[in-house]
What does this fold into?
Amino acid sequence: MTSRGAGTWVVATSNPAKLREIREILSELGVECVGLEGLPPITFPDEGDDYAENAARKARSAAEQFGRVAVADDSGLEVAGLDGGPGPLSARYGGPALDDSGRVAHLLAELGSSSGAARAARFVCVAALASPDGRVVTRRGECRGWIRKEPSGTSGFGYDPIFELESDGRTMAELDDAEKNRISHRARAFRALAALRLPSLPRSAP
Ligand code: ITT
It folds into this structure.
C-alpha cells in the first residue's frame, strides 16, 4: 500500500495558511487531507528547538488522539546574520504580542543595515507522518534565499514578504499559491513524505 491508498490524512496544525498549503501540495499527489475543524479539540505538546522532534510530537499526538494517520510540520526561517535564528522559534519571535507583520518588522530591525552574507537565509520545514500505532517518520525540505530590506508582495504568510528566493529573485510573497507550492520548503518535505510506503514506517521515534 502506498500513501495514496492510506485514506484521508488529518493535518495537525493551528495555522490556517499552513493547512491550505499542505492540502494543495498533497492534493496534487492524490492524497486527501482534512484539517482539525470538526474534530474534537486537540492538546498540542509544548514545542522545543528541534524541528523534527516538534513535527513528530504534533503528528503523533493527533494520530493517537484521533486514531487516524496524521501529518504535521515544524518550520522556520534561518538567517545567517542572526546566528541561524529565529529557526524553530520563528512563530514566537519577538514575543507573543506580535503578528506576522510585527515579526517581520522585528526581524528587519534585528538585522539592521547588515548586508551581503549576513542576509543569507533559508526556510526549513520538517514534515512528520504518524500512524495511530505510534510509528512516525519525518522528511526535511529547504529553500534558500536572502532577506530583503523591505517587505514586498501579499501572498503567503509569515516571513514570505521579506524572503527573496535564490532561484527566482522574487520574494516568496510575490509568487502565487501554485508557484510557492511547487518550490517551497514545505512542498519538498511533504512530497518526500507522500512518496513513502506506509507499512515501512519505523516503529520508533525519529
Ligand atoms: P502549528 O505549530 O500549529 O503548525 P505554527 O505557525 O506555530 O503552527 P511552527 O511552530 O512550525 O507553526 O512555526 C512556523 C513559523 O515559521 C510560522 O509561524 C512562520 O512564522 C514561519 N514560517 C514557516 N513556514 C513559512 C512559510 O512558508 N512562509 C513564511 N513563514 C513561514
About this structure: The helical segments are 16-27, 51-66, 100-111, 177-183, 185-194. DSSP finds five helices and seven strands in the chain. The radius of gyration is 17 Å. Strands lie at 9-11, 33-34, 70-79, 86-87, 120-130, 136-147, 163-165.
